[in-house]
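Working notes for the structural subgroup meeting. M.R. asked for a predicted model of this chain before we commit to crystallization trials. I am recording the input and output together here so anyone reviewing the notebook later can reproduce the run.

Input as submitted:
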Amino acid sequence: MNRYTLAIIIWIPILICASATATPEYLKQTNIPPVILSYTDLDRILVNVKSQVATANKSTNDKGSPSAKATIEAGEESISLPDWDPLASVKSAPNPGSAFRFVFTQSDSSVSRVEIDLSDFSRKIVVEGTDSAQVKAIYSYLKDEFTDFSVSFGGYGFRSALGFLAWTLGGTLIIHPFLYPTIMKFIDPSRTVIYPPKGTLLSVLFGVLVLVALFLLPWGDWLTGFAVYSGSTSFIDRNINWMSFVSLVATPIISILTILIKTAKMTPNSAQSQINR
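Returned structure, recorded in token form:
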């Protein structure tokens, strides 16, 4: 008998038996909304997950060596924590942290993998293992906990859409007063068109303010997809300096706009040049 044929005859039954006796893996994963929380809260979540995983894998500790690692990032700064080291006690942790990744693995276990991946671009949790009940329990716990710290608006995608709308609005407010008379004249040559239209200065000013706010204000911090802080997570506490600056700048601007609006209302249309056909 050919030795290759003999090898096939021997290995095929072994592979079939191995696949038949392999323990199935259950997987639960989901994306979660933007999240803002403190290191203390994040640490508490991980401690509870560690306890649940240890209980679930108590009977399977001899099947695989457990491994856990957490990474926190902020721009180019990054720190890694081995095992289940507490986050709240790490003095060198960036404040705020803009990305967090945690991975636990233990092969052939009731809970063989727990993954938490949180960033400005996307946020997801993954739980995998051979025990569907344990996988579902830890998955539900993580989902509920992070949902409690979620915010309605934020993330790179949301800011991009909002920025596009703001850019369109600002540009329209600036260009509209200059194009409107021409467009109206083209549509109806018999129409008497006032140029420049009433409110031109206000429209242009509002458009400029929208574009300035779009590029100068810290929308990445205000509408972040994920952030973890060593102190308070309150919006006011986190942005008190910026709010004070905006209030200081907005006060004279509002006063000037009020004067311009009153002036525009008092200006008679007869004082403006008219374009007849």
